[in-house]
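Per reviewer request, we include the raw input and output of the structure prediction for the construct analysed in the revised manuscript.
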Amino acid sequence: MATATEDKPLDWARVRRNNGRAGLRKLVGLIADDRTDMAPAPLALHTSIYTGARRHAAEMAGVFHNEPIVAGLTGDIRNPGDVMVFDQLGPSILVMRGKDGVARAFLNMCTHRAARLIEAHEPWQGHLPRVTCPFHAWTFDSAGTLVGQPGKAGFAGCDIGGRNLIELPCAEYFGLIFVRADPDGAPIDAVAHLGSFGPVLAQLELDRAEPVKKGILTADSNWKFALDTYGEGYHFKALHGSTIGQTHYSDRNVYEPFGRHHRVSFPDLSVGALVGTDEAEWPDTDYGGVHYLFPNTVVFFGAVMPGVYFTQVFRLFPDGPDKMVCQFAVYAPFGVEDEAHRAACEMAYDATATVVQTEDYRVASYGYANMKTAPAGHHVVLGANEPALHGVHRHIAAACGMPLDMTE
């Protein structure tokens, strides 16, 4: 990956074009050889990997309350005084940008009597340079400092009678805002967390992305079972016959792991026409792909038509072991150009949300209900042609300290 110099910023559009062409070579080779990237062997998973209450508790402790989790993008709180609510880790969290431009995270809890400071729920965001408690009007600035305390004399002599907000580890890197839900947790090292995946994400310029539309998708399913659909194209033809199943090859993918993260690319039907042709005759190539950030975030970046990009962010969270909440958002990757562009982004949200909710999450809900009533000892199986899913499950199992062969 190319790097910028102090006097010459990196031309990210050129980087994406070059990487898009390199990715296209891989996809053309895949179709020419009539193959797909494969794991060494299929992977059988006991149903308790999804349904187990003990595993769910381990994932909450070892993953969602311990790992850096994406709370949003830079554009969600671009200006000083901007704030957003982040609810899905269990404790409600406020992420605020201070006057110094730094993004910080705090428990959404007044230090007086624990009232919820902002009563709206995710995906709420707004501009509040100061946050005032609705209970007794204690007021905090965007750095979490207590700056207004009616009846202050009533707390004289009490060491904890005038506390600032409780801060959580927070880091902003490559346009991603990470939060750790444990106030006593270690600072977040985003560079180490992303590792070799960092340069891949850098080219997406997520710091420029402007939010256009957000919403919530749900499934009566374990979160991992719903997450599985984002890592394989084996289901395209059967499940998405009227949408992506008509535009893309089914059961064909290029899988590229980067530590605990990965990128997976699915060839559209136009790739087949390039097989056997001279590369000099190929059309200009747009970069795109499905980017998975461990443990629960999927970023789709790509062009639905030449030069017209969308950034879609899916963040999947458990709502107990048997339900799932997905915070879904569509961004204009480099800012909204005009009202027509905004409308196109909104349409992208609506179309994607409809397909995911009525097709992917419908199947996940019905399948999970079957898992709950399956015979004792029943296993599902991930095919060797679904390699991304193998990696996701192995890394989640390692993070929560329960290997995949440990059943309940």
